[in-house]
Amino acid sequence: MAGRFPTTLSVDTNQHAGATAGIGAFDEVSAQATYGLMAVHGRAAGRPRRIGVDYLTAATRIVAAQGTLAAELSGLRGQPVGQVRVDPASVALLTVSQYLAAATAADPEHPERYEQRGTPPPFCTIDGIRVELETLDPEPWWTLWTGLQVPARLVDSGWHAFVTRSATAVAPLPPELHEAVAALTYAELVGAARAAGVAVQPVRSHAQRLTDPGLGGGAWSVSVTTDAVRPAAAAHPGGLPLAGLTVVEAGRRVQGPLAAHLLGLLGARVIRVEPDGGDPSRGMPPMVGGCSARFLAVNRGKRVVTARLRTRAGQDTVRELVAGADVFLHNWAPGRAAALGLDSTDLAKVNPGLVYAYASGWGDARGPGAPPGTDSTVQAYAGLGEHLRPADEPPAGSLMTLLDVLGGLVSAEGVLAALVARHADGRGRRVDSSLLSAAGVLQHSRLSGREPARPAWGPLGAPVATRDGWVVAPRTPAGYDDPALPVALAQVSTDEALRALHADGVPAVRVRTDLAELATDPAVRPLLDIDGCAFVRAPWRFLP
């Protein structure tokens, strides 16, 4: 099978990061600082914060694997690829793409502002249990808080902050909500929440996470769906690796839409199924050309078909689309696909060569009765609260869509592996991945015991304030731990601080706090398309 694999896979580690950050090589800490991840992760706290796991390292590895699989598939289809190049700077931008789009959208009616007054989740009960609450509907929210005697106006303002928390990375909840929970025991909170229809997920510890069965499993699994064989695919038409292939996507929020978006960046035609009237997320400000900038960050360029999935006609619409497609991808709630007659076994009868991808929240880890598998509840269950923050801070997840993004990356990787496998025998495949499996990828070094549960950084390992900004360093010389350093840096400008630190051999970088600056940075601009706002280009280059 010579020629199937690219002869070279390279990860460019000394291009844009060095040019932008003033350093000679790409590294996790500098990239988090330079490309806005620290800003978004820390937005709810009103200051940039370092993500306590090697998030971009994990994401770049997945994107590199995607490039390798796409190149292999291209070769199998008759268009060999000699080299795949992956730019980690593009990967970093991809992880904040919805926040970057919102920050660069010129919408005078809805300027992007981040309200910090208020306290984000998690909540803490009187007996010291930290919890995330989850509901996707305002009625249970209203029932819970009014039942706890919170004034209606605060319940309403709290709902808006709560329901937009992942999209904005802030959640300025009224303190009265936290006070109401703090007056209850955990058992009392669970009882009140269950009666209202609100899910409660404790923020679990690293030790609790280690008790979960199946740790160390793969990020995705692929299984054969049918013994029927699909006729051989047509030859590659030329162009990007997935050119000539069709993906039907019925996704919501970020995980599913991002997975399909990545397949589209690799050349596939993507058809998106939305409810009548369109996805409600299209209307979330700021707007670009009448559509949400955040929504467009992971959905632009897709053909849209509307369907009422609860009706036979809507289900038939999906079946008709799937009959001529290569991939069907969704991240519906558990059991919904089967209830609609659109599960993998159903659609294998329509198209035996279909790659059916389910990007779930929990996979099969928790069974019936689990809370909704959203970014925040999965972070809490997975023990990321301890992994993200050092030991002198209480454990808490991130409001940045860490797992939604990583889950989308993982799902797309699994689809590519299934497409390669399908080429060998013509049989359809099912791909299962989840936010929880994505968390396992992110936590691998900690769950395997190679790193301590809580991150530990030196004096400049987390952002330190200067007179007009912030600096951080990926490493500091031995003995460079003067406790007066933060006080001294606070007295000087960021430029002055960087000059002094570089003179001492400390490779410190500026922490970018305004994502809009990325669109005007000469080193970053080539990685973006500007069309009403900034969109991130594909992170791969495929060379003959």
List the SSEs and their pairings:
Layout: E1 8-11, H1 16-21, H2 28-34, H3 37-41, H4 55-76, E2 83-86, H5 88-95, H6 97-104, E3 123-124, E4 130-134, H7 138-147, H8 152-163, H9 165-168, H10 175-182, H11 186-196, E5 199-202, H12 206-209, E6 220-224, E7 246-250, H13 255-265, E8 269-274, E9 287-288, E10 291-292, H14 293-299, E11 303-306, H15 312-323, E12 327-330, H16 336-339, H17 344-350, E13 355-360, H18 375-381, H19 384-388, H20 402-425, E14 429-434, H21 435-442, H22 444-447, E15 464-465, E16 470-472, H23 485-489, H24 494-503, E17 509-510, E18 528-530, E19 534-536, E20 540-543
Parallel strand pairs: 1-2, 7-8, 7-12, 8-11, 12-13, 13-14
Antiparallel strand pairs: 2-20, 3-4, 4-5, 6-14, 9-10, 15-16, 16-17, 18-19
Give an overview of the whole structure.
The chain has 24 helices and 20 strands. It is an alpha/beta fold and 544 residues long. The protein has a domain at 123-209. It has a 7-stranded mixed β-sheet with strand order 6-14-13-12-7-8-11, sandwiched between helices. A 3-stranded mixed β-sheet has the order 1-2-20. It starts with 7 loop residues before the first strand and ends with a strand. Mean pLDDT is 92; it is low at 1-7 and 13-25.
